[in-house]
Amino acid sequence: MVDALDLLKILTEFGAVIISSLWLYLMIKHRKALPYSIGKLGDILMWGLVLIWIGFLVNFANEFVPRLTTSVKAIKVSKTADDVFIILGASLVTYYLYQVFEKKMPKVTPMQVPIDMGSSKLSPGAYLISSNVPLEDVVKFLKEKSMLAITRRPQDYEKLGIPYIWLTKTEGENTIYPTNLTKLLHTMVTHANGNTAFILDGLEYLILENGFESVMKFLSSARDYMITKGSILITFVGEKTLDDHQLAVLKRELKELEII
């Protein structure tokens, strides 16, 4: 019975090494899809995963250490090392998760811009508009709404007095990392209500950083939340920046909008 239990213990520890190796491989392979995957936080995440993997590896190796040495001190060190590696790695991963998911959202709120022109008659939902349409025309069209921009061009919205979230890899006030679509969606949903309009001016950049499929999932979820919350999302798109298939998928999910 003892031998069987010992064998089971070795197999489970070997299984932990295999699974953690696969886990580490997949995390590295798909690193760009993770929030804050590039830069300092990304390095912290990767080091955390590597340390956890080393911990499982050492834990497996500990099954054979007593057979290689009779030194009590060496055996104690080896049996302590696996816990140290796993604790350090788990601490780094926990720090990463805290920074990504618990860090405060951008301190920005939608604001109504006083412009005496036009009127928005749109029903709640998500809309596409050509990037050739002047930003000023969109703002005039939404004059009765409290607006919040999600953009790669913060200076354009700052001139118009429109609150914005800057899509950037540079950390700062009112910024969101472009691959953190979860946090971006959460921020939008938090501010969404019956008098709010969001302007997404950075679609191509999000696609570049996340891939078309991930961005479409984000937009589909955002559209559903806009309808539920009674809000509006207007997304600028440069038609020549997407292929025909991508544009067709985009137009199936979001209604086309023309401002006359």
Automatic annotation (TrEMBL):
Q: Which residues form the DUF835 domain?
A: 137-254
Q: Where are the transmembrane segments?
A: 6-26, 38-61, 81-98
> Which source organism does the UniProt entry give?
Pyrococcus kukulkanii
Q: InterPro entries, per this entry?
A: DUF835
Establish whether keyword Transmembrane is in the entry.
yes
| Lineage: superkingdom | Archaea
For this UniProt record, the keywords arranged alphabetically read as follows:
Membrane, Transmembrane, Transmembrane helix
Supply the name of the protein.
DUF835 domain-containing protein
Query: Which Pfam families is this protein grouped with?
Result: DUF835
